[in-house]
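Session log. Operator J.P. requested a structure for one protein chain; no other inputs attached. Running the standard single-chain path with token output.
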Amino acid sequence: MNSKIATLLGAALLCSSLAVQAQTTPPPAGAAERKGPTAEQREKFRTEMKAAHEACKDAKDKRACMTGSFCAKQADPAKCQENAKQRHAEHAKHMDQRQAIAEACTGKRGEDLKSCYRAEAEKRGFKPHHGHKKG
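Structure written below.
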């Protein structure tokens, strides 16, 4: 009698789990695809940047020249310029944070310097670039 109840209970659980599994929503169509640029997009970007670098090698303000040269070839130059301004502002903010941390840790060496940098960065809410490991 107990084996029949166990068998029926197991079959009921199996059926209910299959029903629940069938009701879940499928992942979006592009979920499995890689989010980064394609090989063709990377190559196009690379050649455009090489051309901009070559055109600006003697310019006084290389950043502005590179941005202008690169954005001129884009489908929406105004949007490219705006994105570049944002990136430059974020980079300047990042460098100011780094400078403040370096000034706070002046005179320290070795492990003291490393721990000072970490403490100052944490205190200021500084987020390191991706790829940097805490350790």
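Operator note: Helices lie at 2-23, 39-55, 62-72, 77-104, 110-124.
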